[in-house]
Amino acid sequence: MGRVPLVDLQAAHAEVAEEVELGFKRVISTTGFIGGEEVAAFEREYAAFAGVPHCVGVANGTDALELALRAVGVGPGGEVILPANTFIATAEAVARTGARPVLVDMDPDSYLIDVEAALAAVTPATRAVLPVHLYGQLAPVERLVEGLAGSGVAVVEDAAQCQGATRYGRGAGSWGIAATSFYPGKNLGAYGDAGAVVSTDQTLATTVRTLANHGGLTKYAHDLVGFNSRLDALQAVVLRAKLAKLAAGNQARRAAAQRYDDLLAGLDVVRPATLPGNLHVWHLYVVRVPDRDRVVAELNAAGIGAGIHYPTPVHLTRAFEHLGYRRGAFPHAEAAADRILSLPVYPQITGQAQESVIETLRSLL
């Protein structure tokens, strides 16, 4: 069988190559590389797509998280609650504000944050709860918002993997503020690093924009000690071209996920679960298998781009061992990290390729 990549960025580029080339020529001809109409247009278009009034483009997803946290008042001496099973950037963003990451376990079926554990972890030092919308579906944000009502604790969503996903008809950021990443492999991917913060709150959005632009909204006006984290115009060109195809791409991912569900029936594989009320966009199709490391290695050797998202929970990384958590602290996250693998999924994947993936997986199991 031929090679099946985990993500096919070449196929994604082919769909927008002509439009991107024309857009690059527009930007180069005007030399408007930072900000400008391409960025402003993308911000308007992505806000409309996300169903929120405000979008601020920034340099990358990690910056987006940090800026969103800072906008809601997170800083030194505070605590932010987040799941142990996430990419390191979620915890990094908290640490970069000077706050302390407080970890909780995940729901073993959905891999999303354990809401009850998060609410139980709130202390007088808690400034925010940071649910992560893993793999393409939203965590139960409404339960967190309801549970935190009147406490003064903000909910900041890590929406890097869920562009276009909804929960009971609402998208990320519609409860207040969310940060997303446009890393090339995302459902909406740039040709380099890029990110954004979306919000329903104009004050929060203005604070993010101010912080991201050296602390000011106009040249040489610096109201805050800020950062240099701006979406550049060339990336905005790419994102605009891809955004026009995102809804169709997400639908193609849903069809591919259903095909995997059907093909995996009867195998010793735990298939992913979608929470009631969620419209999933299948950034990743994650299963649990026995003897995971051998299976991944042999899939890769057979030309199948299986991956692991993520092999080490935050508390077991060297970077965050100072938090004092030990193995066994978050048993669901740890058990999943030892058994999960991600199968190839992208809008252009064919049924034949998926059948080949599962035929090989079946032989290995």
TrEMBL record:
Please give the superkingdom of this protein's source: Bacteria
Q: Which GO terms describe its biological process?
A: polysaccharide biosynthetic process
Keywords annotated in UniProt: Aminotransferase, Pyridoxal phosphate, Transferase
Which Pfam families does this one have? DegT_DnrJ_EryC1
For whether the record's keyword set contains Protein biosynthesis, the answer is no
Keyword Transferase on entry: yes
User: GO MF terms on file?
Assistant: pyridoxal phosphate binding; transaminase activity
Q: Which family would the database say this protein is a member of?
A: Belongs to the DegT/DnrJ/EryC1 family.
The protein's name is Glutamine--scyllo-inositol aminotransferase
Q: What organism, scientifically named, is this protein from?
A: Rugosimonospora africana
